[in-house]
Amino acid sequence: MLDVDIEKRLENFTLNVAFQVDQEVLVLFGPSGVGKSMTFNCIAGLAQPDRGLIRLGGRILFEKDGQRRKDVPLHRRQIGYVFQHYALFPHLTVTQNLAYGLQGRHDTSAQVESMLARLRLNGLANRYPRQLSGGQQQRVALGRALMIKPALLLLDEPFAALDQGIRENLQTDLAELQRELGLAVIYITHNLMDAFALGDRLAVMQTGRLEQVGPIREVFHRPNSRSVAKIIGVRNLLDGVVQSVSAEGLIIDCEGYTIVAPPTSHTPGERVAFYIRPEDVKILYPDRPLASTVQYNRFTGHVLQTVPGGASVTVRLGMEGKRVELESRLPTRVYQSLGLEVGSTLDFSLRRDCIMLLPHSQR
Q1: Domains of the chain
Q2: What stretches in the chain show pLDDT beneath 70?
């Protein structure tokens, strides 16, 4: 178990984070420059917080609070760190890079051979980093971090420069290793697909603080604030003012458009933030009767842009009057059957039960 509760003053803001990590993968997610890598550096011992506590497996690695001070050197923290750009020693072979963290120990050949096999690096033992592909270099970097049998593994965007196929293979191998070794892992990424592929929990970070921490699907489907919703890429994020509340639903004025959302405890005159996912913006067929799910929130608009995406197409819509733009996502075959083009006029519906209001206190 890793316990972190630290504060560090930076040039533009103060890093102030507190969290725990058990035998799991915690994904640290957020824009560049909000303190993710500095958090890693403080945990690893590459930077020193101004105050706080870092404890790993019951062992205090850092403590600074009044007269109490402790700062364990980075080489004694039992933490593996994998950098985005691998940071391999160019003048050392694969074997020598793997064994680097074991300097001073006797007969490390068996451990190196085991790691070569585990990470499918057999046949590459005597090659230098320049003779390896990006995926192979990343495997060596991961192996080097694991050779010291860390209690914690820090991964700073390790797959960012890799092709999708190589990335997926490495993610699978890493997930197996994490379960096999019972590791606590913290993983920085800007890619939500990577987060879903590896993560157990998601910690969304903004300007030096953690905005929301929880199971990854829960955070993704239930962001607790407008800020979190923007960071995780929620589309169709809108603001409005509550007009009335009834059994029919919450009536919201959004830029002059009346939108019906599910009934909630909001009050008339209150400003609210809400969103609807693109797959719940339903384009209506002109020659078919309306289903009950799309009887509310029917609007007329026009196609601004279409973006093919393999099995689906994203259609950017301008609502009549052009004050609000929305995205709709539909299967490619459905899109093709509609014969839509840029400039086409169409009717669409925002499914009432799929309009998600953000919590009162954190918009």
Answers
A1: 2-231 (3.40.50.300), 237-357 (2.40.50.100)
A2: 104-107, 287-293, 322, 360-363
